[in-house]
Amino acid sequence: MRRWLRAIRGGFAFLTRFPVGSREGDWTAFRSTPAAFPVVGLVGGAIAALPLLAADVLAPATVGFGYLLAIYLVMGINHLDGVADLGDAFVVHGDAERRREVLKDTTTGVGALLALSVVVAGVALGGVGLARMAPLEAVAVAVAVEVGAKLGMATMAAFGAASHDGMGRQFTDSSTVGGYLPAAVVVVVGATLVWPHPAVIGLCGAIAGVGLPWYWANRNLDGISGDVFGAANEIGRVVGLHVGVIAWTLS
Question: What residue ranges are annotated as transmembrane (predicted)?
């Protein structure tokens, strides 16, 4: 139990802006316990979704903007750095080694600017879509999407292969399937019980969204890295939000 608490505290310190006061051993416990990822997503996603409760009284554009601000105030902007770096690596010509060099380059190129713009706009517009739902339903979708994005990151940690030494390898070398399965089982069982609610479809969309940069990185970078983890979280959130909104629209 103490190890789980350390892992969750380390997860909040790494994945959010919560002032949890990380202690010695928290980081080690977190990177070896991928099941902590969706726990952080559940709590952080619920807090970031609070502006959606105003959907009945404020214009959708205002609520969507509030949701955008809340996401980055609660979850932080660190992962956007991964989006920027992956955007530059995506547009560059060359082999895997050349693309990895671009990931480490501190210069911000046009690929980075475009990737950041698409992701931020995607979150904002997803928030506008959520604001058209009943408030509690919108919150359910937003929370499920955050859980899905974090579960996708946990899946990468447990089953992915790092391209080189760095943040990515700290997760892939330390994470175990045994440390991943508890959260995966709980999420799958919970999703099955409420299927086909738009929240569950959004959760599945977020996991699939994480798979997009993971697949691309395996083909073009020879594996994943810390930047890929960060970008996968952001892309998973955007895809999940819009898949959830589409599911609600069609229901």
Answer: 35-55, 61-80, 108-132, 138-162, 174-193, 199-217
Q: Is 115 exposed, middle or buried (0-12, 13-18, 19+ CB in 10 A)?
A: buried
Residue 25 region, left (φ>0) first, then alpha (ψ -120 to 50), else beta?
left
Q: Which residue carries 């979150």 as its tokens?
A: 123
Q: Tell me the three state secondary structure of residue 224.
A: strand
Alpha-carbon distance values, 83 to 67, 117, 128 (Å): 20, 10, 22
Helix (H) or strand (E) run with residue 51 in it: none
Handedness of CA 7, 13, 18, 23 (dihedral sign): positive
Cβ distance 183 to 151 under 8 Å?
yes
Name the residue type at position 12: F
| pLDDT 10s digits, 184-219 | 888 888 888 778 889 999 999 999 999 999 998 898
- Residue 96 is inside which H or E element, if any? helix 96-104
Is the pTM of the predicted complex or chain greater than 0.90? yes
**Contact (Cβ atoms closer than 8 angstroms) between residue 236 and residue 148:** yes
If you average pLDDT over residues 79-104, what whole number do you get? Answer: 81
How far are the Cα atoms of 86, 140, 161, 219, 232 from residue 214, in angstroms, in the given order?
11, 26, 10, 9, 7
The full DSSP string for 137-179 is HHHHHHHHHHHHHHHHHHHHHHH--BSSSSHHHHHHHH--HHH
